[in-house]
């Protein structure tokens, strides 16, 4: 883009530095493909056109089943380690603190076997941009505090494991979650390339 080129030239950057900067995550084809489409539309609304801007590269279509995609959604709805406040003698001074992250960094992706980068991206976007997921997580936290199994556990590690095992089936038990996720994936398909076949039509 003309602006970037001008900035690099003014500071006298070596061509190799310019090339490295343009190949970084924020100037990659994938990032620019998402950015430029929206930028072009915004400029067009103002009667403007970006001269010299690269042509957006959009990802190829990638079809997967819901069963293939589901672990990537769940990996991004990740309970944090449970922490029970204690005094200086290690005695509990309050209820265990329960939190759930929907995050691109704090998540369960590392526990997936041979994770696929495209599905990681789609799973994160589906989780963070689907309101039904956030709503269901909020309800889960409220109900999990009263979980009898939680009360019987004596360590925060055991409570964390119990919470991580419980959240997935709870999340998926609400049909609104799958419906919402499918709508999000369809809306973002031009950006991710990911298409979940028969997404909103669960098998009986």
Provide tags for this entry:
single chain; 204 residues; mainly alpha; two-stranded parallel ribbon; two-stranded antiparallel sheet; 9 helices; 53% helix; 5% strand
Instruction: Quickly count the helices.
Output: 9
Topology as a string of helices (H) and strands (E): HHHEHEEHHHHHE
Shape, principal axes of CA atoms: elongated
Distance between the termini: 51 Å
The helical percent reads 40-55%
Number of structural units classed as domains: 2
Residues in β-strands, percent? under 5%
Report the C-alpha radius of gyration, rounded: 22 Å
The averaged pLDDT comes out at 84
Largest sheet: 2 strands, parallel
Q: For the largest beta sheet, what order do the strands appear in spatially?
A: 1-4
> What is the count of β-strands?
4
Q: pLDDT below 50 for ≥5 consecutive residues: which ranges?
A: 1-12
Which structural class do you get from the secondary structure elements?
mainly alpha
Short note summarizing the structure:
The chain is mainly alpha-helical.
């Amino acid at each position: 883009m003309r602006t970037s080129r001008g900035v690099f030239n003014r500071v006298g950057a070596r061509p190799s530095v310019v090339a490295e900067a343009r190949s970084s995550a924020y100037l990659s084809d994938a990032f620019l493909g998402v950015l430029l489409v929206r930028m072009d539309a915004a400029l067009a609304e103002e009667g403007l056109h970006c001269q010299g801007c690269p042509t957006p590269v959009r990802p190829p279509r990638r079809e997967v089943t819901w069963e293939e995609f589901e672990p990537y959604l769940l990996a991004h709805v990740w309970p944090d380690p449970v922490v029970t406040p204690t005094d200086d003698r290690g005695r509990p001074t309050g209820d265990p603190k329960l939190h759930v992250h929907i995050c691109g960094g704090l998540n369960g992706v590392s526990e997936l076997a041979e994770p696929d980068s495209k599905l990681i991206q789609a799973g994160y976007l589906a989780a963070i941009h689907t309101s039904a997921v956030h709503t269901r997580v909020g309800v889960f936290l409220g109900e999990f505090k009263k979980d009898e199994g939680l009360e019987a556990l004596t360590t925060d590690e055991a409570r964390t494991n119990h919470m991580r095992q419980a959240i997935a089936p709870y999340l998926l038990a609400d049909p609104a979650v799958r419906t919402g996720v499918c709508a999000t994936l369809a809306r973002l398909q031009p950006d991710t390339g990911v298409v979940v076949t028969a997404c909103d039509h669960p098998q009986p």
